[in-house]
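The following block was generated as part of the benchmark described in Methods. Ligand: zinc ion.
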Amino acid sequence: MSLGPGIRRIVAGNAGLMTGPGTNTYLFGMREVAILDPGPDDARHLEAILEAAGSAIRWIIVTHTHPDHSPLASRLARITGAKVLGLPPPGDGRQDATFAPHHMPVDGERLSAGECELIAIHTPGHASNCVCYLLERERLLFTGDHVLEGVSPVILPPDGDMSAYLHSLDKLQSHDFERIAPGHGGVMERGKEILAALRAHRLAREEKVLGSLRRLGAATLDDLTPAEIAERLGVDVTTVSWRLRQTPILGISRLLAQQIKASKEWLP
Ligand SMILES: [Zn+2]
């Protein structure tokens, strides 16, 4: 599928449980090139990027600083002299600590990158420093891990935040785009419908947890073990590790805790 004039994609060789078919690195422009999400610090991937764009690389932009998205930025910047853009890594121990941007895009900022102009949209949730980039000309939204093809992204507390994630999904709806180019997987048509489906999926899950909490009666969050809730939800435990299995539950628990704090009334 064509992404649009001057837009290319290279997939890193890091396919896996958390990365699907591998991290997508996007290239914008031909004479002057912007790289979006250079990916893991991998020699073969670096070679592929340099072969595709080499000395034409002027900008390196990242959606967030998880280790499968940004680590190659510093090496690529050293080689090409490109300017690095993105938000610095949060301190949750799960980030690429080497990422040091020259410029931190503010929300709504128009970034001029040679033949392309991108609008930066802050979308905290999957990570607190997530930024989506809209290529208005093509009505194409680059989402990093905020929206993925075929799967719902992992929200790992404390840096990941389900409440912020839902707000960010709503925020994207106000922008004019048609297709979504995710950080992993192929380009998706009818982007707005995909966002709506993703939101509905998350809320349905939240409702399920809320139902479990109601059935428990007067329990505190401390009484609820992730294992207990996972069992009640019937979460598939055959294909993912225990640690991952806990993740959505903890994310939802945190969201509920925020709501409880806000309303001070939660159990009937
Ligand atoms: Zn990520």
